[in-house]
């Protein structure tokens, strides 16, 4: 009898290069679980089909990095918010019309270019624009004054909610392109927004540690849930009952009763900040995407049903389709997708004894209770039967689209990269067919050779700065896209803080150039010599660094922070300075004015380093100095001279002059780097604003 093939519970689908620069946001289509939208620092929104290598469509129009993206429930509209506060909505249904004429239009452009080269001399410029391949499908919403941190589509009406770093929540009417209502109440950035399943409420989570519930009909806050002790990153409504879940950076998940407006239970002990949660479609459990694992929770009472180890790092979004949970994560310009087979996951009852046991049979699910514990949502019978009633601003407060917005819409483009994948994902909305609609098939699970291989594949990735090479997966990239959108400025090469391979180390260096079977012993010797190359030098470097850190630590134990910093600077090794600053930055009370005079020259060196970790540490230290000491320095320098001799004041004045001179020197460097894109550009722009008083 043939041996049955044992499959995995969780596996990696693929890894793609999603953007030319860093990925800043992404979202999965919840209806199909197959559509992925990514926003990048290159100001683009790209659409992908899960487990397909090519980009389906690229949407342009934003002029600053895309911070948040969201798809509506039927996956026909997509909204994207940028770092500048602008919001753009694309109609994917309208873009379908372009697919049928794509080939003919591309032929027109090809013949146009060919005729221009053959018929016109090079000295005769051609007047007028070239034929456009695709027309824009975009709506622009303006009104926020800072980054767009969160977005959500109304489940029935044509409304979009947006949350920003300016602490405001706005409700937009897509048809009229105007702000319907503004909700105020949070004191810090709004990180997540979710409409209730019946479309009557809106839940918001913010960095001020609170969750708020808003009534759309009355236009006011219904209740505030202040239980968290850290920024709240995500909220999610139960699909049926009046229940809300919230996840926070305090490593807890709280469940809130929306009838009694009180906490139901609290799950503590998460391995890290909670960034992504999702209820099962039938509401039997909650999935939490943790660091390198998926956890399955119940709430009455609070308990963990199962833990599945998945090597996905920090998962950014989750979706469920065909009894499979799809998770996506991003790092720099790459996006990875993972699948968890939910038929092999315990969703009710007791926790599984061994989360590493990937070869267990499918879990037997006990029947659900016939009646819910709470009131259930009353959904409208038809999507377009009755328009959603919401509280609206007066006509004078609504913002009508300006000519500048119309110009932006005309300049925006929807560029289809792969028509075949596009047709497969975006099916016609109003098609007539005598056969049942095509249903997407589950992703096939790869076979598992043995239990040891399963455990090895499920091990979480180490959180170290340098890792030994691992077998590389095939990275799928998309072809370059030609557009009229200006390209971002080129950045100087920076070595990332997190990378899969040590810098300058190649697997080919460990192998001989030519394999000679007759000289097996010689081949082994050659391989060992390649492995030992540079080993002694690295040992000397690490030994020297360890000795230097011991010297600084000996001074640190005496309690003299200034002397320990002076000793680290005297060693003339930036790595030691970075290690010391990473400790000092954690406690702002350790900073003194005389410490700034020593640290500022080192910060200038760190900001010019090619190592990302050095630049990050330098930016953090400089931000602390500017926030704590720049007002003091400017006040002391602007104060009139005193009569008589004051030794302490003269010393303080001298330190302020030294710091001011050094800050002026650093100000030019910060200004030159504030034009960069991505995380570094944002940090330098923030520092440039803090240093505005120096100009």
TrEMBL record:
WD repeats lie at residues 16-58, 59-100, 141-182, 183-224, 225-266. Residues 349-465 are annotated as: Disordered. Residues 533-691 form the Katanin p80 subunit C-terminal domain. It is found in: Cytoplasm, Cytoskeleton; Cytoplasm; Cytoplasm, Cytoskeleton, Microtubule organizing center, Centrosome; Cytoplasm, Cytoskeleton, Spindle pole. It comes from the Eukaryota. The keyword Cell cycle applies. Signal peptide: none annotated. InterPro entries: Katanin_C-terminal, KTNB1, WD40/YVTN_repeat-like_dom_sf, WD40_PAC1, WD40_repeat_CS, WD40_repeat_dom_sf, WD40_rpt. SUPFAM superfamilies: WD40 repeat-like (SSF50978). Residues 388-414 have a biased composition (Basic and acidic residues). Keywords: Cell cycle, Cell division, Cytoplasm, Cytoskeleton, Microtubule, Mitosis, Repeat, WD repeat. Pfam families: Katanin_con80 (PF13925), WD40 (PF00400). Interacts with KATNA1. This interaction enhances the microtubule binding and severing activity of KATNA1 and also targets this activity to the centrosome. This interaction is weakly competed by KATNBL1 which has a lower affinity for it. Interacts with ASPM; the katanin complex formation KATNA1:KATNB1 is required for the association of ASPM. Interacts with dynein, microtubules, NDEL1 and PAFAH1B1. Interacts with KATNAL1; this interaction is weakly competed by KATNBL1 which has a lower affinity for it. Belongs to the WD repeat KATNB1 family. PANTHER family: KATANIN P80 SUBUNIT, KATANIN P80 WD40 REPEAT-CONTAINING SUBUNIT B1. Participates in a complex which severs microtubules in an ATP-dependent manner. May act to target the enzymatic subunit of this complex to sites of action such as the centrosome. Microtubule severing may promote rapid reorganization of cellular microtubule arrays and the release of microtubules from the centrosome following nucleation. Microtubule release from the mitotic spindle poles may allow depolymerization of the microtubule end proximal to the spindle pole, leading to poleward microtubule flux and poleward motion of chromosome. This is Katanin p80 WD40 repeat-containing subunit B1. It comes from Balaenoptera acutorostrata.
């Amino acid at each position: 009898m043939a041996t049955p093939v044992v499959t995995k519970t969780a596996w990696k689908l693929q890894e793609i290069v999603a953007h030319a620069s860093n990925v800043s946001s992404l979202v999965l289509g919840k209806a199909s679980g197959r559509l992925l939208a990514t926003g990048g620092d290159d100001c683009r929104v790209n659409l992908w089909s899960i487990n397909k290598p090519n980009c389906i469509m690229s949407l342009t129009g934003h002029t600053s990095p895309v911070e948040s993206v969201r798809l509506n429930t039927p996956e026909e509209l997509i909204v994207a918010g940028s770092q500048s506060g602008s919001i753009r909505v694309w109609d994917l249904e309208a873009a379908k019309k372009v697919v049928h004429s794509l080939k003919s239009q591309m032929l027109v452009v090809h013949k146009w270019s060919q005729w221009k080269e053959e018929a016109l001399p090079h000295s005769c410029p051609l007047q007028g624009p070239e034929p456009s391949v695709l027309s824009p499908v975009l709506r622009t919403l303006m009104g926020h004054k800072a980054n767009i941190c969160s977005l959500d589509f109304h489940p029935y009406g044509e409304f979009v909610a947006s949350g920003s770093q300016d602490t405001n929540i706005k409700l937009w009417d897509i048809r009229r392109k105007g702000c319907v209502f503004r909700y105020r109440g949070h004191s810090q950035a709004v990180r997540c927004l979710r409409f209730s399943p019946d479309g009557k409420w809106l839940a918001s989570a913010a960095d001020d540690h609170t969750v708020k519930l808003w009534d759309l009909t009355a236009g006011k806050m219904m209740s505030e849930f202040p239980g968290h002790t850290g920024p709240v990153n995500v909220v999610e409504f139960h699909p049926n009952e009046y229940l809300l879940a919230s996840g926070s950076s305090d490593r807890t998940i709280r469940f809130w009763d929306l009838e009694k407006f009180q906490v139901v239970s609290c799950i503590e002990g998460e391995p890290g900040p909670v960034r992504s949660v999702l209820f099962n479609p039938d509401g039997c459990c909650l999935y939490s995407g943790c660091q390198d694992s998926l956890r399955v929770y119940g709430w009455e009472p609070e308990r963990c049903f199962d833990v599945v180890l998945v090597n996905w790092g920090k998962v950014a979004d989750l979706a469920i389709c065909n009894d499979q949970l799809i998770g996506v994560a991003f790092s720099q310009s790459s996006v990875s997708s993972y699948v968890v087979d939910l038929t092999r996951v315990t969703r009710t009852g007791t926790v599984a004894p061994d989360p590493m046991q990937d070869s267990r049979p499918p879990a037997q699910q006990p029947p659900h209770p016939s009646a819910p514990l709470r009131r259930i949502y009353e959904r409208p019978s038809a999507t377009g039967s009755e328009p959603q009633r919401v509280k609206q601003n007066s006509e004078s407060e609504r913002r009508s689209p300006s000519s500048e917005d119309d110009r932006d819409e005309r300049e925006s483009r929807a560029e289809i990269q792969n028509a075949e994948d596009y047709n497969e994902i975006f099916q016609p909305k109003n098609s007539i067919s005598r056969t049942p609609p095509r249903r997407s098939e589950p992703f096939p699970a790869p076979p598992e050779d043995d239990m040891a291989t399963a455990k090895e594949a499920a091990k979480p990735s180490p959180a170290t700065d340098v890792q030994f090479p691992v077998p590389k997966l095939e990275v799928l990239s998309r072809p370059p896209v030609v557009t009229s959108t200006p390209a971002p400025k080129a950045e100087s090469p920076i070595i990332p803080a997190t990378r899969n391979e040590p810098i300058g180390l190649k697997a080919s260096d460990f192998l001989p150039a030519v394999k000679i079977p007759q000289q097996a012993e010689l081949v082994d010797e050659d391989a060992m010599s390649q492995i030992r190359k540079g080993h002694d030098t690295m040992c000397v470097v690490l030994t020297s660094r360890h000795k230097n850190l011991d010297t600084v630590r000996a001074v640190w134990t005496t309690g003299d922070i200034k002397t320990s910093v002076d000793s680290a600077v005297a060693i003339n090794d930036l790595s030691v300075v970075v290690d010391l600053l990473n400790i000092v930055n954690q406690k702002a009370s350790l900073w003194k004015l005389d410490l700034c005079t020593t640290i500022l020259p080192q910060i200038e060196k760190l900001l010019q380093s090619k190592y990302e970790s050095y630049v990050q540490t330098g930016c953090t230290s400089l931000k602390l100095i500017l926030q704590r000491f720049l007002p003091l320095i400017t006040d002391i320098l602007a104060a009139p001279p005193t009569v008589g001799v004051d030794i302490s004041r003269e010393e303080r004045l001298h330190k302020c002059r030294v710091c001011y001179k050094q800050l002026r020197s650093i100000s030019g460097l910060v200004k030159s780097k504030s034009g960069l894109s991505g995380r570094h550009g944002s940090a330098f722009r923030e520092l440039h604003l803090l240093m505005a008083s120096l100009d």
